[in-house]
Amino acid sequence: MKTEIYKCCKCKHVHSSENREMKKSGAFNKSVCPKCGSAPYYLMPDDFEPFSNGAEFMSWQSNNCDKCSKYENTSTNESEAGCKLSFHLDLASVQDGKIPYLIANQIGIRKIELVSKCKEFDKAEP
């Protein structure tokens, strides 16, 4: 079964069809958010294209990933990555430019773009 991503219109929390709370509460059948009880929530796209070009990607990365203590770019899969968020961004930069919506949400989304500072940013020691 395909994992579907939902976002609540009221509390703005993102929920996955794999979320135990949603399955347990029957939220998919009731069309209510399991977190706040509000309705409706809506289906999100599978992928998110965070940058319109390579220059935007490089600028965002130099202000976030390059200065973060978790960043490394030698891993070949997500489980080995120092930061799974940057792993997906790096992979997208050499593929179709898209990252999974759940990853974009973890980084932080404002309207239709990534926030200027990653939510997972951990300043590297000088």
Task: Write structural notes for this entry.
With 126 residues, the chain is an alpha+beta fold. It has two domains: 5-43, no CATH class; 47-114, no CATH class. Helices cover 30% and strands 14% of the residues. The protein has five helices and seven strands; from the N terminus they run ββααββααβαββ. The strands form three sheets. A three-stranded antiparallel β-sheet has the order 2-1-3, with helices on one face. Strands 4-5 form a two-stranded antiparallel sheet. A two-stranded antiparallel sheet has the order 6-7. A hairpin with a 5-residue loop joins strand 1 and strand 2 (14-16). The protein is elongated and about 40 Å long. The N and C termini lie far apart (46 Å). The mean pLDDT is 80.
Summarize the structure.
The protein has 126 residues and is of the alpha+beta class. The chain is built from five helices and seven strands.
Strand order of the largest sheet: 2-1-3
| Coarse shape | elongated
Query: What's the helical proportion of residues?
Result: 25-40%
Tell me the number of strands.
7
Percentage of β-strand residues = 5-15%
Q: Cα-atom Rg, whole angstroms?
A: 16 Å
Give the overall average pLDDT: 80
Would you identify the regions where 5 or more consecutive residues have pLDDT less than 50? none
Order of helices and strands: EEHHEEHHEHEE
How would a textbook summarize the main sheet?
3 strands, antiparallel
* CA(first)-CA(last) distance: 46 Å
Q: What's the structural domain tally?
A: 2
Helix/strand-derived category reads: alpha+beta
Number of helices: 5
